[in-house]
TrEMBL record:
InterPro entries: PG18-like
UniProt biased composition (Low complexity): 56-70
Pfam families found in the cross-reference section: DUF6825
Transmembrane segments: none
Stored PANTHER family: BNACNNG14650D PROTEIN, OS04G0513000 PROTEIN
Positions of the UniProt region annotated as Disordered: 56-88
Example GO BP: thylakoid membrane organization
Name this polypeptide is given: Thylakoid lumen protein
Length: 110
């Protein structure tokens, strides 16, 4: 084998390794960004749900203050854990329905 062929082999090998490293870095960065995005979205959803629950508690407290004997008042502080989870599940289902309807609206508008 001549020297240019040997050099070409090593250049090709080095090129393949460098490309592999760049692909690995790019893929790792993309997965990292995706993980960060997912965590941020979960955090935003959690904060949104807390805000909704806080508003509901405030409204319930106002309602109780103005009409203590009214039926249908909500008091989330005294709800068992299962009822709170059911409420959260219902809110999630409602959000999903609203998103689907919004997507249908957007697709019809285009």
């Amino acid at each position: 084998m001549s020297k240019p062929e040997v050099n070409a082999f090593f250049v090709g090998r080095a090129l393949a390794q460098a490309i592999g490293e760049q692909v690995e870095k790019t893929l790792t960065q993309a997965l990292s960004d995706l993980g960060k995005f997912d965590a941020e979205q979960r955090e935003r959803l959690h904060a949104f749900m807390e805000e909704v629950m806080q508003r509901a508690q405030q409204q319930a407290a106002q309602t109780q203050g103005s009409a203590n004997s009214a039926e249908g008042d909500f008091n989330f502080a005294n709800e068992p854990e299962g009822d709170l989870q059911a409420t959260i599940d219902e809110l999630r289902a409602e959000i999903a329905r609203v998103r689907a309807e919004l997507q249908r609206y957007r697709s019809r508008s285009q």
